[in-house]
Prior knowledge:
The chain is α/β, with parallel strands linked by helices. The chain contains 22 helices and 6 strands.
Amino acid sequence: MNILKPDSPVMDFISTIADLIILNLLFIICSIPIVTFGAAYSAKYYVAMKIIRGEGTGVFIPFFKSFKRNFKQSTIVWIIMLVAIALIVLDWRWIIYSGWAETPLLYKIGIIVFSIFVFLMTIAIFPTIARYEMKTTELFKAALIFVIIKFIPLILIAALMIGSVIACLWYAQWFPLIYVFCSTTITYFLCIVFIKQFDKLEKSQAEKLKALKESVEYDPELDAAGNISLASSKKEVKELEKELEKPDAEKDQSGNKVTRFFREEKQKLAGLTAKQKAGYLAQYYLPGTIMVLLLAGAVTWYGIDIYKSNMRVLGGGQINCQVSDEGRKYATDGFLSWGGYNKARTALLADNKDMDFTSEFEYEQKYLEVAFRASIVTGQYDYMIMREDAVYAYSTPDYFQDMRQLVNMENFSEDDFYYYEETEEEKAKSSKGISFRDIFNMGDEEEDGPVPLALKLTDEIEQKLGLDEQYDYYIAFAYSTKASGNNDYLKFIEYLFGKC
C-alpha cells in the first residue's frame, strides 16, 4: 500500500490531525473577545464531530456557519456559565483566605461538587448546542443528563485538561507544542465520547430527527458558497477520483513508486476543470501540507530553542533593578571571554522591566509570585540580581540554592549574605507537602537555622553593572539541572567577586 495515496489511512489520519489543529487555533482566535467563547466552542465541536465522522471536509466555512447560527443561544448559555464560574471563584477565594481547616466540611464538599459539575457542564453543553436545536432550559437538562451518564469519561478528560494547563505553565518554553498536542488530543477524545452518546440518542429518536433534518435545506454542493473543497463530503471526492480512473486501461509501471505516483496524479488532474482541481488538491493535499509545514516549523523552532539552551552558559534576570547596557555586556560577553568559553557559547542577562514587584495589592503580589516561581522552576533564569527589598520578599530555599553549597564561606563575612530563616508557620506548611527544594535536593536533610541564599554585591560590582548606587543589591542562584551548572555558577561568582 502506498502511503502517499490520498485515500490511504496515513494520509487520512494526517488530514484529520491537520484539520483539528487548524480548528483549535481558529477557536482560540475567535474566543479572544471572551464573550464569543460559547459560540466559538460550539462551532469548534460542530466541525470537529463532522471531521471525526468523516461527514464533511474543511474547517473555516463550516466553523463560521455554525458560529453565526448558534451565536445567540451559545452566548446566553456562556453568560449563565460565566456567572456560575464567577461564584465558584469567589467561593474558592473565600476558602483560601479563611483557611481550609477553618472552612466547614459541608461547605467544602458543596463547593467541590458544584465546581466539578459546572466544569463538566461547560464541557458538555456547547457540543450539544452544536448538534441539536432545543430550548435553553431543555439544553441544560440534556447537558446535565449527559454529564451524569458520561461522568467517568468526562472526569478523565477534565483531568487531562487540567494536566495540560499545568504542563503549559510548568514548561512555559514548550507552551505552543504542548498546547497543540493536548488540545488536539482532548478534542479528539471528547468528540468520540459525544458521538457515541449522540448516536445512542439518535437511534431512540429517529423519527424526530428525521423530521428535523427534513425541515432544514442542505445542499452539500451549494453549502459553503459552492466550494467543493470545503463543503462536500470526503466520499464525494473519492467517488470523483474513482470516475477518473480507467480500469480497462493498463497502468504504466515504469519508474519508481514516487514517479508513478506523480504521473497518476497528473493524469487525474488532466480531465478536471480549474474549480475541480482546486477542490481535489484542497481535499487531499492542503491538510497534509499544512500538517507537514506545522511539524517542520515546530521541529525547527524547538531544535533552535534546544540548541540555544544547550549553548547558553548562564541566563540571568533582574528584580526591582536595571543594569546598564555596558553592565549587561560585562555580565555576559565579558564573563564568557574571561571564562574561556568557545565562541558558540552564549550568556544572557534579561531586561526584566516588568519584573518590578512593588505592587501594594495583595492579589497582584500573589500573581507575580506565581509568575516568578514559574520562571525559576522552568529554568528560564540561572541567577537573579535583586534589589534589597526584593531579596526580603522572594528569597526562599524553594527558589534559590544555599550559598554554602557554592562558595567557601570563609572567603566572605556574615554581612555579605542574606540569611533566610524559616518561620514556624512555614515549617508547618512544608511538613505537609513536597517543596521544590525536596525535588531538587532529592531528599537531602535540611539544616536548622539561618540559610545564606543571596550574596551581596560590592560597590565595585554595582558600578560595573551600572546599578543605582543608592540601593543594596544581591545575587542568588537557582537550582541547576545542568551537569556543569554549579561549576558555571562558581566561575561567575569568581568573575564578579574575585573569589568563590
